[in-house]
Amino acid sequence: MDISFPFADWFRNSSTYIDAHRGRTFVVLIEGEGLTPERRAPLIQDLALLHVLGVRLVLVFGVRAQVRQALEEAALTPQRHQGRFVVDEACMTLIEREVSTLRLAIEARLSPGLSNTPLHGVEINAISGNLVMAKPLGIREGIDFLRAGEVRRVRSDAIRTLLDQRSLVVLPPLGYSSTGEVFDLDAADIARHAAIALGADKLIIVGRAGGLHNAQGRLMRQPNLQEAQALACQHEDAELAEHVHIACDAARQGVGRTHLVSWQDRDALLAELFTRDGVGTMITRERYEQLRGARIDDIGGLLELLRPLEERGMLVARSRERLEQQIDDYVVIERDGMVIGCAALHPYAEDGSAELACVAVHPSYRGGERGDLLLEGVEQRAREKGLTTLFALTTHTLHWFLERGFVTSEPDALPQRRRQHYNPQRNSRVLLKTLTSQGLSKAGK
């Protein structure tokens, strides 16, 4: 009997990411709500798994939810100003208690487990300490913030040394001043400073929201910086707005990628890091998905993309040798290292025309505007070369071309060199398009 396990397929497909993440530095911020006793176990187990897989981890944790509850139980109502508590001695005593309690709980969860627990036999050195230097917020608009502070700097050299020793670094939301005082800090700000100072490959923010959504409620998987900031301003969720601001600032200052996921989904951290599309929002300075010229190392991806279409007769088969010879004619859409779309521009200098060929999009990524993006990229290349006409041959996608400004024609309209290779048995439809000076395609309007 053939027994199939979905986990096995997922694990096979995750191998690329396991290899890509090994040796990388991730700063992970988990807000306090995600670390309550009933929620913390799976998150900390997932962090332990990342550590075992070779990720260099810095964990920053918040205590906002824990402190709020402690203040209510103590019947204390600290003054708020400019979005921060004025932290007097009584309030600071509660904050230090909640930070210490949660830090100890995290360290306990990261300790070697019993034989029937996920962390059985795994030894992880979870190291905390005076790794964040702080300064007081001081007096603002006449209000003295007392023990509330802000990050002065993160001791990045000390953290790197600990990471080199295979330690998992834990940063609580406290900072230490040059005068020997302890200050209450914003955990998200610590995470931002740490990610920037370390040049982290990823900043992962685990908050209440499961990513950034547009006005229609659709998850924005990869907004650019401008889109992310505009959407955040429209949300009433103050925590999400802060997280998006931090993500955008980190991206501008060199952090590779910032991921926004929710602690409400117990699988979110692993699903975001070990699947191609993830489950949350990723913000990068550069596009996660980009159109670019093809390179020789794209040949394998092109062959894999084109083979199913060639087998169905939708495209003429192209050998590896042919692709290598014509690689400069191709543009590709790359998504996280995978070629998910391509198109080729083959010029015919004798009459100023060029063939638009081999337009293909991976089945899992159809339905968007990737075909239009490919067409726009090819048309731009054609104009840069001084070409005035595009032609295409198709057996299956006539209407797609007609909707984008092509008109039907006859094989006699093809350049002589291309006409000699026209295959009457395929009976491909011939389409032409005149390129205007600005020539915006549908995707560019």
TrEMBL record:
Enzyme Commission numbers on file: 2.3.1.1
InterPro entries per UniProt: AceGlu_kinase-like_sf, Acyl_CoA_acyltransferase, Asp/Glu/Uridylate_kinase, GNAT_dom, NAGS_kin, NH2A_AcTrfase
Pathway the protein contributes to: Amino-acid biosynthesis; L-arginine biosynthesis; N(2)-acetyl-L-ornithine from L-glutamate: step 1/4
Keyword Cytoplasm found: yes
Catalytic activity as recorded in UniProt: L-glutamate + acetyl-CoA = N-acetyl-L-glutamate + CoA + H(+)
Gene Ontology molecular function, alphabetical: L-glutamate N-acetyltransferase activity
Principal location: cytoplasm
Gene Ontology biological process: L-arginine biosynthetic process
Domain N-acetyltransferase: start-end pairs: 289-436
EC main group: transferase
NCBIfam families: N-Ac-Glu-synth, PRK05279.1
Family membership noted in the UniProt record: Belongs to the acetyltransferase family. ArgA subfamily.
More details: In bacteria which possess the bifunctional enzyme ornithine acetyltransferase/N-acetylglutamate synthase (ArgJ), ArgA fulfills an anaplerotic role.
Protein name from the UniProt record: Amino-acid acetyltransferase
